[in-house]
Specification:
With 131 residues, this protein is mostly beta strands. It is built from 1 helix and 8 strands, in the order αββββββββ. The strands form 2 sheets. The chain has a 5-stranded antiparallel beta sheet with strand order 6-5-4-7-8, with no helix packed on it. A 3-stranded antiparallel beta sheet has the order 2-1-3, with helices on one face. The longest helix is centred in the N-terminal third of the chain and has 8 residues. The structure holds zinc ion.
């Protein structure tokens, strides 16, 4: 999400976004997919997860339409915030864009898209598959 600032653990993630690659981590030891980026596996505690690239295809796990937003996002309302389960087995929060906000439902397939925010940074969002 736009609010999350780059830090050492997540810089490969943001470098990926900048070239329109959705990166996530995978544990070397227990093989779980990890997101948001971190230096230690949350499942088994082993360090140094490896970076992988997602195909950017997922399914909506949960979603809600935002009508009242913080001032920075007020002009965007209404918009849809969703938890998306990516095919590779990790979950991320983002917006579903370019859609009728009332048509977004749990279980719909989505594809990642990249848009620049008003500071020129690319941000990953999702659109409804085949829409
Ligand atoms: Zn692990």
């Amino acid at each position: 999400m736009a609010e999350e600032l780059p830090d050492p653990d997540s810089s490969p993630y943001w470098e990926g976004i900048n070239i329109e690659e959705l990166r996530y981590q995978q544990c070397n030891h227990c093989n779980i997919s990890i997101f948001y980026p971190r230096s230690i596996c949350p499942n088994c505690g082993k360090p140094d997860p490896i970076w992988q690239t997602s195909k950017g295809k997922g399914t909506i796990y949960a979603c809600s339409v935002i009508h009242r937003a913080p001032p920075a996002y007020k002009e965007d309302t209404p918009y849809v915030v969703a938890l998306v389960d990516l095919a590779e087995g990790f979950r991320m929060m983002s917006r579903i864009i370019d859609c009728d906000t009332n048509s977004v439902k749990v279980g719909q397939e989505v594809d990642v898209v990249y848009r620049k925010d008003n500071t020129g940074n690319r941000i990953p969002y999702f659109t409804l598959h085949n829409s």
